[in-house]
Specification:
By secondary structure, the chain is an alpha/beta fold. Helices cover 44% and strands 23% of the residues. The chain starts with a strand and ends in a 14-residue tail after the last helix. Bound molecules: ligand C2E and magnesium ion (2 copies). The site of one magnesium ion (MG) has 4 residues, from loops.
């Protein structure tokens, strides 16, 4: 919060977890920006804590006294409303404006509703096939969560996953996704004779909790399934934030025989050296590089070199976001292993996926051994 006055050193309050309120008096906007620069600079060095290197990233939402409001509570809400879009856009700071208020109300309603979403049966999983390009058959599907909200209709995950991460609800959500996926795997296997491993997206927040490995292991046991029923998709950020810790936890999954994929590859800042150390099976090239593949030369260069580099490291490559035949054909020519995208099939509810598989020439109809587990 900023009070327009002659400069003082300000007061800092911790308002829970990693959230702080800074109360400063500044004479004008220029002085405020100088203050923000100073805070950012003070946080730039890497802090060494026992065996960990801490990179601290500061993002701020700003509300002015008395222009925005005179009440402390209101000013806090406004600063919070400005902080959220700053976090989403990766900006160091944003000042409050009235358009942020509506988004905040919606956001608060979503946060409130999330706690009941599982109990009220409002979460659903859709499944999108992953196509083995060389063999021309679907070898896996990815589970993608949606929220059938009583007021807002079908809410996509981009609107609520980050809220779930911020409020801690993500752990309950991940557990629900895991259990639902494993039950679905059994239903397809037992009722349709379809054996399809299912990929589950795992937030960095879930992966970082020490008990996450046990959560996955007991979900498999509870459903009497072995490790090959699932694949875990983790984002690059997991690796960048704390490579050593990421390697340690991924190693446990690898030893258990659970396949691992690095999702959204190319959007984070992981280096080749970091990737090389990772015990993962495949790289998923982010759709940003794939959707316009045939018209953008730069994307072709990136995708081609990623395929070569990943293969040299012994990793499989998945391209996501394929929207036309020409892109699929291009990827096949350049040795990409797996394809995923609207051109093949959109994410669909479980029953529709079975229908799609039955009608599609991508379904492997050869008799299969169904393991009775
Ligand atoms: P993701 O894991 O990278 O999933 C791929 C996203 O791309 C999905 O969006 C999918 O619907 C979309 N997509 C697939 N093919 C195409 C295409 O050809 N063109 C375009 N434009 N898009 C395509 P969706 O379902 O909205 O999910 C967004 C993100 O939300 C996911 O990205 C994932 O990071 C996250 N998410 C989804 N379900 C879960 C979940 O159960 N847990 C967690 N932690 N995150 C999830
Ligand atoms: Mg994914
Ligand atoms: Mg992705």
């Amino acid at each position: 919060m900023c009070i327009r006055d002659s400069c003082d050193t300000g007061q800092v309050f911790n308002v829970g977890g990693n959230a702080f309120v800074l109360l400063v008096k500044v004479s004008d906007r220029l002085a405020l920006h100088e203050r923000i620069d100073a805070i950012q600079q003070a946080m730039t060095p890497v802090f060494e804590l026992q065996n960990f290197s801490l990179h601290i990233n500061v993002q701020m939402g700003i509300a002015w006294y008395p222009e925005h409001d005179r009440s402390g509570t209101k000013l806090l809400e406004m600063a919070g409303a400005a902080l959220h879009p700053a976090q989403l856009k990766g900006l160091p700071m944003l000042e409050y404006d009235d358009s942020m208020f509506r988004t905040t109300v919606e956001r608060l309603e979503l946060i409130n509703g999330l706690n009941n979403a599982i109990r009220e049966n409002e979460l659903v999983l859709h499944y999108q096939p992953k196509l083995d390009i060389a063999r021309g058959i679907v070898t896996e599907v990815e589970a993608l969560v949606r929220w059938q909200h009583p007021q807002y209709g079908m809410v996509p995950p981009d609107k609520f996953i980050s809220l779930a991460e911020q409020t801690g609800f993500i752990h309950e959500l991940t557990l629900w996704v895991l259990d639902t996926v494993l039950q679905q795997y059994r239903r397809w296997r037992d009722e349709e004779s379809i054996v399809l491993p299912i990929a589950v997206n795992v937030s960095a927040e879930s992966l970082r909790t020490p008990e996450f490995f046990d959560v996955v292991e007991s979900a498999l046991e509870r459903n009497s399934l072995s490790a090959d029923a699932i694949c875990l998709e983790v984002t690059e950020s997991v690796v960048v934030d704390n490579p050593q810790a990421a390697i340690a936890i991924l190693d446990r999954f690898q030893h258990k025989g659970i396949r691992l994929a690095v999702d959204d590859y190319g959007t984070g800042y992981s280096s080749l050296a970091q990737l090389q150390q990772l015990p993962v099976n495949e790289l998923k090239i982010d759709k940003a590089f794939v959707t316009n593949l045939t018209s953008r030369q730069a994307d072709q260069v990136i995708v081609k070199s990623t395929i070569e580099m990943a293969h040299a490291l012994g990793l499989g490559v998945v391209a996501e976001g394929i929207e036309d035949a020409a892109s699929l054909e291009w990827l096949q020519r350049h040795g990409c292993d797996t394809a995923q995208g609207y051109f093949i099939c959109r994410p669909v509810p479980a029953d529709e996926l079975v229908e799609w598989l039955r009608q599609s020439h991508y379904h492997d109809r050869r008799p299969r051994l169904v393991n009775a587990e």
